[in-house]
Amino acid sequence: MELSAWSGSVRVYLHPRCFSRIFVALALWSFCVSASADEPRDNRFDAIIHEIAISHRVDPFLIKAMIWHESRFNPRAQGKAGEIGLMQIKMDVVRDWARARSVNVPPRENIFDPYVNIEIGTWYFARAFHKWSDSTHALLLALGEYNAGPGRLRRWIRQSGGNSKQAVSGSVSASYVRSIRDKYLEYTLEYAAALAANAGSRHPSLEEQAF
Fold first, then answer.
1. Angle 86-115-103 (CA atoms, 0-180°, nearest 5)?
2. What's the rounded mean pLDDT across residues 149-164?
3. Which backbone phi and psi does 78 adopt, to 5 degrees?
4. Is the CB of residue 203 less than 8 Å from the CB of residue 23?
5. Is 109 a catalytic residue?
6. pTM of the model
7. Could you give the percent of the chain with pLDDT greater than 90?
């Protein structure tokens, strides 16, 4: 699947009318996930991802795929350019978030906290996604901006003559987007299979009947 095709399909999937079904289903799944020490590494932060993604109106599976790519779920991860934590955010993003929230800039050490890190990273991605929401390739542009920054993305768009598809798919961020795309689809398909298996093994609950 080309990046442009994926961009369009996921943009529909993220339409506000789809949020309620996605989030109700994910909430039901979250209640079934164990919080024990034996919990698979990928699932440790599901409850936080779920809560924060809902608050920013983005798909939790997409945020989870981004975290997988950025840090492999290591909250102490650090990048060569100063990236911090699960979503590999930089302090300039933290300062933007603090200004938008009218709060003091938290110390760098606090940014390693999973809740703080996912909140700021998701806010930054959601801001980019909603900024580009009128574009057919909104998701590509938002991920490109998250990976490379708004300045580089605008330069790529100018260099491609305004072709936003080419701006990202022909850039150094293309492999980043493909990686997240593949993991996002994997999470979505795994969850759909789990729902189907669960539905076939017992009678649905009242919540599931409503869904």
1. 110
2. 94
3. -135, 135
4. no
5. no
6. 0.78
7. 70
Task: Identify the band that residue 3 occupies on the pLDDT scale cut at 50, 70 and 90.
Answer: low
Contact call for residues 65 and 184 (beta carbons, < 8 A): yes
Q: Could you report the per-residue pLDDT of 177-194, keeping only the tens digit for each?
A: 999 999 999 999 999 998
DSSP lists the bridge partners of residue 78 as: 84
Using alpha carbons only, give the angle 87, 90, 93 rounded to the nearest 5 degrees. 95
Are 168 and 175 in contact by the 8 Å Cβ rule? The answer is no
DSSP 84: B
User: Which is catalytic among the residues 2, 39, 51, 70?
Assistant: 70
* Tokens found for residue 128: 């980019």
Q: Helix or strand or coil: residue 207?
A: helix
Question: For residue 210, what are its two tokens?
Answer: 């409503």
Q: Which of 32, 106, 44 is nearest to 75 (CA)?
A: 44
